[in-house]
Write a structure and sequence with these properties.
The chain is of the alpha+beta class. Helix content is about 40%, strand content about 20%. The protein has eight helices and four strands. It has a four-stranded antiparallel beta sheet with strand order 2-3-1-4.
Length: about 150
């Protein structure tokens, strides 16, 4: 089982899409093991986007991610990182296919609704930025056997 960090960015929260986005993740079969709403500070932004801080686009990224509340969550499931990335679609909503989250709800490169970890290694680091270990709840889902076969649920 993999875990991935997902952020519903300020544009998704302001557009009142958080519930719809969460529903799509759960409908896909992902299990939510951590969830909270917060304001991303400049310090938290710099920690999350550490590899981008020196890049020319970072000030706009920081301005956007700190502009309003975000919903941070950790989803768990087989190949969770790839599953969420596929569900989101390309960064630019104008280029995202219908059926993806960005394709259905977005038309912008910057106002792109969600962040999802891009690798298992990144997910581990990003989850630790937003969640303390005790804020993540491991539990057995009674539906797990109906989401994927036992040999896929590793």
């Amino acid at each position: 089982m993999e875990r991935t960090l997902i952020l519903f960015k300020p544009d998704a929260v302001q557009r009142r899409l958080s519930g719809r986005l969460l529903t799509r993740l759960e409908d896909k079969g992902l299990k939510i093991v951590g969830l909270k709403m917060l304001r991303v500070t400049k310090e938290l932004s710099a920690k999350h986007y550490a590899e981008h801080v020196t890049k020319p686009f970072y000030p706009l990224l920081e301005e956007f991610i700190t502009s309003g509340p975000v919903v941070a969550l950790v989803a768990e499931g087989p190949q969770a990182v790839a599953v969420v990335r596929g569900m989101m679609g390309p960064t630019n909503g104008a280029q995202a296919a219908p059926g993806t989250i960005r394709g259905d709800f977005g038309v912008s490169r910057q106002m792109n609704l969600m962040h999802g970890s891009d690798s298992v290694e990144a997910a581990t680091k990003e989850i630790a930025v937003y969640f303390k270990p005790e804020e993540l709840i491991s539990y057995e889902s009674t539906l797990a056997g109906w989401v994927c076969a036992a040999d896929e649920a590793k």
